[in-house]
Amino acid sequence: MTQQQWGAPSGQRPYGNQPPPGWGGQGFGQPAYGFGGQSPQRQNPPGGFGGPQPGVPHYGPPTQRPRKRSPLMSLLLGLVSLSLLAIVGLVLVNALTSSSDTAYQNDNYQVPPPDSTPPEIPLPKTYGEAEDLLVNNRFYAQTAPIPVRCDNPPINVANASDSDLETHFNGQVECLMRVWDPPVTAAEFLLPRPSVTIYGEKITTKCGESGVNAFYCSADQQIYFSNLLPQAVPIVRTNKWAADVVMAHEFGHALQGRTGLLISAHALAQNAGSERESNQLIRRLETQADCFAGVYMRSVSRSLGVQQSDLRGIQDTFVAVGDDTITGEPNVEGNHGLARTREFWGTTGLGTSDIGRCNTFTAPANQVR
Q: According to the UniProt entry, where is the signal peptide (predicted)?
């Protein structure tokens, strides 16, 4: 990765063999990454690494004034072409076979129970190794299986009990494991199964305190979902696929954690030369998780009966959680991505099983805006 690509002033980041401060220590308390609500209060682990990042709220008010900039025609054209690609992808999945003669992939996979004490996530030893993990990760060379069986139809999360939500989302994690364990294993990483915990207004985890949200906590490698999220984010209660897209996005962060992408991006963001550069790195993480969510939805679309008419609603989920949608500022300098950007990457995933297509870390800056 070149210095120009990330835009840091010369000499501000120690590359080469110099390790980031505190790497390899215990108690890594990285922040959670969610779809809505308040930003968790982050804890400082030993060594000073993984502490609070400036300007990384969860869809909260930006810390910088929005900048005026014109629409990017190339990005808009890309959205059109990718929407067509996703349509073709879902048509192929749903039209080639009937439900009675579908040959589901990885159907003999035995889903493991949730792992409450997973092994530590992979840690790069240097900033140079972190950059290499982001750009040339072995995970990018893999392909997600398709079609994959998922016997976990969507539920109405707006009026579901906590028990119903927990059953549904833990059932979805079984489907996510069936899709993602083969490519993660093929890339020579481990994928322990995270649990899903349902909570109310706030919760305190190893990542600190969080308000209404859905998030993955890298400190314990588990997923959390607030039962108030459907009220906080309207599309979650009005679109039957939205909650599953949210959970697939959070599992995408689990994939990033287990393949070294998550900690590498945050190490470089913490050491970035500017808040703008730091935000761009976090946006690359978030939009990549959107792409992973799209790949998953494509893989299970046949067994779940996702129709072509459902595609717009799935894409609208990504739009609904864009930085500009949440803040009402069309050119906000956020840390999750504008609506059109999040739709761009979610749609990319919907149209492919090639995990390398989700490599947001080599994408042009305008595609992660």
A: none
Give the pLDDT mean for 142-149.
97
Note whether 105 and 228 are within 8 A (CB): no
Which residues does 87 contact at the CB level (< 8 Å), separation at least 6?
Answer: 308, 311, 351
Strand ordering across the sheet containing 33-34? 33-34, 214-217, 222-226, 196-199
Q: Could you give the C-alpha distances from 136 to 54, 116, 139, 187, 259, in angstroms and in order?
A: 27, 30, 8, 12, 11
The DSSP line for 115-149 is -SSPPPPP--SSHHHHHHHHHH-GGGG-B--SS--
CA angle centred on 223, ends 199 and 352, rounded to 5°: 130
pLDDT tens column, 29-64: 333 334 543 333 333 222 222 222 222 222 222 223
Q: Among 89-93, 114-118, 267-271, 352-356, where is mean pLDDT lowest?
A: 89-93
DSSP secondary structure code for residue 199 in this structure: E
- Strand 214-217 versus strand 222-226 pairing type: antiparallel
